[in-house]
Amino acid sequence: MAISIEQPELVDYDVENERQRNVEEFYQLNHINQKYDFVKRMREEYKKLSRVEMSIWECCELLNEIVDDSDPDLDEPQIEHLLQTAEAIRKDYPNEDWLHLTALIHDLGKVLLLPSFGGLPQWAVVGDTNPLGMWTGKCGHVMGS
Ligand SMILES: [Fe+2]
Q1: What integer pLDDT is reported at residue 10 of this predicted model?
Q2: What is the mean pLDDT of each successive set of 10 residues along the chain, which is 145 residues long?
Q3: Dist. CA 106 → ligand 1 center (Å)
Q4: Which one of 28, 35, 36, 122 is most buried, by most CB atoms within 10 A?
Q5: 92 appears as a binding residue in the annotation
Q6: Are the C-beta atoms of residues 63 and 82 closer than 8 Å to each other?
Q7: Phi-psi domain of 5 (left: phi exceeds 0; alpha: psi -120 through 50; beta: other)
Q8: What are the angstrom distances between the C-alpha of 93 and each of 13, 16, 102?
Q9: 39 alpha carbon to ligand 1 midpoint, in Å?
Q10: Ligand 1 centroid to 111 CA: how many Å?
């Protein structure tokens, strides 16, 4: 009697390792460069809202050009991330239309990576955020100093 064993889907470890390495490098740059003074300077620059005027959908379409280096599981253009997130939220919370919109626009700030919005480096725009300029306690480090 032959035993049938289902084969697991093969994982390309080289691709996985390279992606993981890229994420690690990304967060290293993020922690080295994301300082309080930098963030203050960027807030001053971008709160002017002087670059362009466009619709939400036009802005979403700009994310077709962006892949987020901080996300090890996603190498698709960010517009897909926006649409998948909004659709998943709509499915789980069908009566919360404000939440669908929030999910759709939650990453529009990633346009700052594009040259027409300043072409900031990935470490300055995407990924997890951390408190800056405050004492963190036990480890003895001051983040963003
Ligand atoms: Fe996101």
Answers
A1: 58
A2: 62 73 89 90 92 93 89 79 95 97 95 94 88 66 51
A3: 6
A4: 122
A5: no
A6: yes
A7: beta
A8: 37, 33, 12
A9: 20
A10: 13
How far is the C-alpha of 117 from the C-alpha of 114, rounded, in Å? 5
Backbone angles phi, psi at 70, to 5 degrees: -85, -10
What are 2's two structure tokens? 């032959």
Kindly give, in sequence order, each residue whose CB lies less than 8 Å from that of residue 75, ignoring residues fewer than 6 positions away. 19, 67
Q: How far is the CA of 20 from the centre of ligand 1 (A)?
A: 18
Task: Report CA-CA distances (Å) from 143 to 73, 87, 119, 137.
Answer: 27, 36, 25, 10
Both tokens assigned to 136:
């963190």
Query: Hey, what are 94's tokens?
Result: 């069908």
Q: How far apart are CA 51 and CA 30, in angstroms?
A: 25
Please, which residues have CB less than 5 A from ligand 1, an ion?
Answer: 107
Q: Among candidates 18, 35, 34, which has minimal Cα distance to 125?
A: 34
Task: Give me ligand 1 centre to Cα 112, in Å.
Answer: 15
Residue 106 annotated as lining a ligand binding site: yes
